[in-house]
Design a protein that fits this description.
The two termini are 23 Å apart. Helix 1 packs across helix 5 and helix 2 packs parallel to helix 3. A 4-stranded parallel β-sheet has the order 2-1-3-4, sandwiched between helices. The protein has a two-stranded antiparallel ribbon with strand order 5-6. Helices cover 41% and strands 22% of the residues. The chain is globular, with a radius of gyration of 14 Å. By secondary structure, it is of the alpha/beta class. Strand 5 and strand 6 form a beta hairpin. It has a domain of 34 residues. It contains 5 helices and 6 strands; from the N terminus they run E-H-E-H-E-H-E-H-E-E-H. The structure holds riboflavin. Riboflavin binds next to strand 3 and helix 3. GO terms for molecular function: 6,7-dimethyl-8-ribityllumazine synthase activity.
């Protein structure tokens, strides 16, 4: 489904489990920081809104989205972390860097989740331009950080 047809108001909290004792790792890329900060804020607020405790949310930054995978692994390997939420913004440029980064992160995060058997959420906003990224970080297409947090809570109830 195109992201334009789905935004943060779409997620349903009906089946959310009690997360008051769950511990969350947030891994946030510093590239495009003005945008990733908004994603992180959305994720953080969503976790609190659904019952997570402030002291159970561990935020870490990585230089760029490519490093989200290793950052996720550093957190996921700790038994006390229940879910990891990875947030980054990759904007298409003149070269194919975006393709390489996006595919590497998608595969990497999939592997970390499978290796540690816990939710590792792909909150990577991949866009053609800055405007599309802003639209997805508190703009007209919602905040993908909110949706990433909702996905983590959903998966904890699996
Ligand atoms: N990281 C991002 O999170 N978003 C980007 O849009 C982004 N663009 C990049 C473009 C180029 C040409 C390069 C070399 C790196 C870029 N990075 C970006 C950084 C990348 O994720 C990583 O931090 C560095 O390549 C160091 O491993």
């Amino acid at each position: 489904m195109a992201t334009s047809l789905k935004n943060l108001s779409d997620y349903t909290a009906n089946n959310f489990v009690d997360i008051s004792d769950k511990r969350f790792g947030l891994v946030v890329a510093e590239w495009n920081r003005e945008i990733t900060d908004v994603l992180a804020q959305g994720a953080h607020e969503t976790l609190l809104k659904h019952g997570a405790k402030e002291e159970n949310i561990y935020r870490n930054s990585v230089p760029g989205s490519f490093e989200l995978t290793l950052g996720a692994q550093f957190l996921a390997q700790h038994e006390e972390i229940d879910a990891v939420i990875c947030l980054g913004v990759v904007i298409k440029g003149d070269t194919k860097h975006d393709d390489y980064i996006n595919h590497a992160v998608a595969h990497g995060l999939t592997n970390v989740g499978l290796k540690f058997n816990k939710p590792v959420i792909f909150g990577l906003v991949t866009t053609n331009n800055l405007e599309q990224a802003l639209d997805r970080a508190g703009g007209k297409h919602g905040n993908k950080g909110v949706e990433a947090a909702a996905a983590a809570i959903h998966m904890l109830g699996f």
